[in-house]
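Sat 14:20. Reprocessing the chain from the morning session after the first attempt stalled halfway. Input below, unchanged.
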Amino acid sequence: MSRIGVAFDKARAEGRALLVGCMPAGFPTVEGSIAAMTAMVEAGVDVIEVEIPYSDPVMDGPVIQKASDIALAGGVRTRDTLRIVEAVAATGAPVVTMTYWNPIEQYGVDAFARDLAAAGGTGLVTPDLIPDEADEWLAASDAHGLDRTFLVSPSSTDARLAMTVAHCRGFVYATAVMGVTGARAQTSDAAPTLVARVRAVTDLPVGVGLGVGTGAQAGTVGGYADGVIVGSALIRCLLDAPDQATGLTALRTLSAELAEGVRNR
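Finished this time. Tokens:
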């Protein structure tokens, strides 16, 4: 079983959802991102999702786009991401990588799978790669023992959902809304129905992302999903802070609030 699967099982045994916290690699700097992700783990985040910054995102809202732009302007590269994955994995928390597909094609699919596994990464979340076009990644993930997480959405047909889920390993990423990432005032009404549809065709854990920004919202989503995925709200702690120390304090506070939310829903 994957380390992600073990983490989901542990959370389930505790009667709660698992908390996934997301942060772009190299934001605000390589070392700063390692410090931020480590702080998240120490504050109660179960799994870290490290995003490879990309210049042309299709899923990310303005907060993640801005953080990724800062990372790219600072010169972060895919190899830096692998170093960050290794450092964060050393905390003991499972680390999954979220990436658009172009950087992996540029690196070399099998070579990246090899190096990600060597760094301690558990697998990839691939928002712009669909199973129909993923033969090379399916082979590489099998060869190197990595999970693969494809996305389903409220608009997915039953046939499309079943096909996508059948190619996942580790967990399924259910997008709560039709739109881009970003904390919202209310959680999605469509998400519980989508989670139920996924569970009808697989025993894999279902993580819900897009829109969660508070402990109360994390608790609500954790009431029907196996995992709660939070990105923009955490990233904003650093974006809005006047300095890194203040940002890390805010990040720890929100991480603890979210962790409390999934534990006391």
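DSSP finds twelve helices and nine strands in the chain.
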